[in-house]
Amino acid sequence: MNETSEKTGKGAARKRVLSGIQPTGEVHLGNYLGALRQWVHMQDRYECFYSIVDLHAILGEDEPASLPARTLDMAISVLAVGVDPERCTLFVQSDVPEHVELAWLFNTVAPVGDLERMTQYKDKSKRYDSIPVGLLNYPVLQAADILIYRADAVPVGDDQRQHLELTRDIARKWNARYGEYFPEPDAIIPEVGRIKGLDGETKMSKSLGNTVSILADEDGVWESVRRAVTDPQRVRRDDPGRPEVCNVFSLHKLVTDASLISDIEEQCKAGTRGCVDCKRIFADSLVREFAPFRERAEHLRAHPEEVRGVLEAGADRAHEVARETLGEARARMGIKWRSTL
Ligand code: TRP
Ligand code: SF4
Fold first, then answer.
1. One of 10, 173, 206, 269 is an active-site residue; which one?
2. pLDDT classification of 191: cutoffs 50, 70, 90
3. Is the pTM of this model over 0.85?
4. CA separation (Å) from 152 to 19, 74, 168?
5. Distance between CA atoms of 38 and 56, rounded to whole angstroms?
6. Fewer CB within 10 Å, N side or C side of the chain?
7. Is the distance from the beta carbon of residue 154 to the nearest atom of ligand 1 less than 6 Å?
8. Which residue out of 230, 236, 267 has the highest number of ligand 2 atoms within 8 Å of its CB and is therefore the one to mutate?
9. What is the spatial distance between Cα 253 and Cα 266, in angstroms, rounded to a whole number?
């Protein structure tokens, strides 16, 4: 791809993708398998914009004082897993304030009823006596994140599908009123389905302590994997196991060399391989996968100015596109009084 088509993006052969991740700090196996590994794979196939969405994160309960560190840690993790700023645009959402202005413009077309029907809103709003309007508006900002780059596609897991549908509705409503301008972005279905935590029950999450950090060392990995829940019917080491109900086996398939998987499956069924052994192989696979991440993260942690440089350059590039889109959206909505003087 030549430089012009890379710069202009829209005219280029590659479709444009936007994705966002909350600055939760440390990245765990679930974030990696569910999102970041795909971010790495998408870099060459699409023109990618990746955003660390701090303006969404302030709706959470975490301490504001730790947000800068969580944002930096997330950037380090994203870069450590192999997201390459030479091949994509990585930036922090709040560095591109146009997102917020576009969200306001979209507030004028987004239906309250639809926002109230969002599953995530319904779940989260239960935790409040007085629901902040930002919780209701959350998907409008998300629509702005996506549409300000006029993205063609967005990778979405189950939990974000509704928000993408709403984004498409907002684009449609806005276009109907102000003229065809925003694309209705398609969903890119994730490579892997829902990832259950090491407890074999709930979604993998750091706060539930059922996962493992992608920056964990060998001991750290084993410490978490050792306790993973397997086939509950397997009591003795030589009981025949049921890989199809074992969550460790599902995870194995995502990280262990394919050539080993059928052996593991057969030996489990025959009762010739114990779960501890099997988890050892799984832990080894993780350690191998994570090794380069740890090395890169260590380097970046020692050179925060490099991370800062990447995020600044990313914000500059994102800003260029965002400014153009916002200018057009404003003009079509009549926010251009200076031009009448
Ligand atoms: N809501 C997403 C989440 O919680 C994060 C997000 C914000 C996002 N803006 C986005 C994801 C735009 C995709 C596209 O995971
Ligand atoms: Fe699961 Fe492996 Fe134990 Fe079989 S041997 S039940 S696949 S952990």
1. 206
2. confident
3. yes
4. 11, 25, 11
5. 21
6. C
7. yes
8. 230
9. 14
> What are 279-301's pLDDT values in tens digits?
999 999 999 999 999 999 999 99
User: What DSSP assignment string belongs to 60-81?
Assistant: SSS-GGGHHHHHHHHHHHHHHT
Per residue in 67-88, pLDDT tens? 999 999 999 999 999 999 999 9
CA distance 223 to 239: 24
CA 253–ligand 2 middle distance (angstroms): 12
Question: Is there an atom of ligand 2 within 6 Å of 249 CB?
Answer: yes
140 lines ligand 1 (CB under 6 A): no
How remote is the CA of residue 5 from the centroid of ligand 1, in Å?
A: 27
**Which of 191, 122, 196, 120 minimizes the C-alpha distance to 160?**
120
Instruction: Indicate if 196 belongs to the active site.
Output: no
Residue 2 scores a pLDDT above 50: no
Please choose, from the candidates 299, 329, 309, the residue with its C-alpha nearest in 3D space to the C-alpha of residue 92: 309
Residue showing tokens 């944002």: 71
